[in-house]
Design goal:
By secondary structure, the protein is mainly α. It has one domain (about 75-310, about 320-340): ABC transporter involved in vitamin B12 uptake, BtuC, CATH 1.10.3470.10. Helix content is about 75%, strand content about 0%. The protein has helices at about 1-25, 40-45, 55-90, 100-115, 125-130, 130-150, 160-185, 185-195, 205-220, 225-230, 235-240, 245-270, 275-285, 290-315, 325-340; strands at about 150-155, 155. A two-stranded antiparallel sheet has the order 1-2.
């Protein structure tokens, strides 16, 4: 019971911090709300004030609020997906972007953007609307399955093979995406640039609803797996002796992580290193206790990405710095630190 109370205490602190950052993010931007504050405009919108101008309503609700919610949802899912993979592979370097999941999702999303026009008309209307998202999920899932098959033998995962296979998939994805950029039209080129650099500028409430549904489904399945992932740290045979269905656990985590990464890439492009930074920091605080790390990574990922997005909107005002650049800048040194710390075991 004390452990649960401790967890709820940290989650509460995280939630309060997230709310504070969200308030600051809502107040960040170059748009002038005609001499009034963004919070007053938001309150007018919530009350349904007929005197609220269309421009104020659009900026506060459809631009800033939608973007803040998207940052919270995507940051949370990227962090949890990284934590889940690290628990499954028993290694701190196992994240979606480092082992090729993000690259696979980006590749199939790019194919859907450039070549989708040739076969879209043959698909049902509902599928046409979400073809990029479906393609990103399939790319993420195929990459995950390929990495797992290449790097796992006899129930054990070779970390070097896992990282090298991720490098190979990323290289293949980069080369094919480069070719698609070469043959793409101007509008397609802008979309592909968006995927490669990562951005939350295209946030909408429709996308947020889809992200929220994916998040709820994924977390219902994944977050209770903390004890099972703790058992996996002992080894697969020991975990089986403790009553864990190892193969079922692997399949669930692989599919859920592919779903989360694919959906995030479909809506925000390539935002790397969130799934590396958050678990690394939490592991310093709570060791490898996944009953703590999994739920806390959900809220800490939101804090990290929302903070990075707020900086990306304010550093080079009135322009915007792609958020993928910032997360890579933060994640690179941490990646090097992990390599140095674990170089003997690797």
């Amino acid at each position: 019971m004390r452990t649960q109370s401790k967890l709820y205490f940290y989650l509460t602190i995280g939630a309060v911090l997230l709310v504070i950052i969200a308030v600051l993010a809502l107040n960040t931007g170059v748009y002038d709300f005609e001499g009034t504050s963004p919070f007053k405009v938001l309150w007018q919108y919530i009350k349904g004030d007929p005197g609220l101008s269309l421009s104020n309503k659009y900026v506060i609700w459809d631009v800033r609020a939608a973007r803040i919610i998207m940052a919270i949802l995507i940051g949370s899912m990227l962090a949890v997906s990284g934590t889940g993979l690290q628990g499954l592979f028993k290694n701190p370097l196992a994240t979606g972007d480092l082992i090729g999941l993000t690259s696979g999702a980006t590749l199939l999303a790019a194919i859907a953007i450039v070549l989708g026009g040739h076969f879209k008309q043959y698909l049902p209307e509902a599928v046409q609307f979400s073809i990029v998202g479906i393609a990103a999920f399939i790319g993420s899932l195929l990459s995950m399955m390929l990495v797992y098959r290449i790097s796992t033998a006899g129930g054990k995962t070779n970390v070097v093979m896992m990282l090298l296979s991720g490098v190979a998939i990323t290289a293949i994805g980069f080369s094919i995406t480069g070719f698609l950029i070469y043959i793409s039209k101007d509008e397609q080129l802008r979309d592909l640039t968006f995927w490669n650099l990562g951005s939350l500028a295209a946030a909408t409430w429709t996308k947020n609803i889809i992200l929220a549904v994916v998040l709820i489904i994924s977390y219902i399945i994944l977050l209770p797996k903390g004890k099972a992932l703790n058992a996996m740290m002992l080894g697969e045979k020991d975990a089986q002796h403790l009553g864990i269905n190892v193969e079922k656990l692997k399949k669930q985590i692989i599919i859920i992580v592919a779903l989360m990464v694919g959906t995030c890439v479909a809506f925000s492009g390539t935002i790397g290193f969130v799934g590396l930074i958050v678990p690394y920091i939490l592991r310093l605080l709570f060791k490898s206790n996944y009953t703590f790390i999994l739920p806390l990574s959900a809220i800490c990922g939101s804090i990290l990405l929302l903070t990075a997005d707020t900086f990306s909107r304010s550093i080079v005002e009135p322009s915007e710095l792609p958020i993928g650049i910032l997360t890579a800048l933060m994640g690179g040194p941490i990646f090097i630190a992990i390599l140095i710390k674990f170089k003997k075991s690797l």
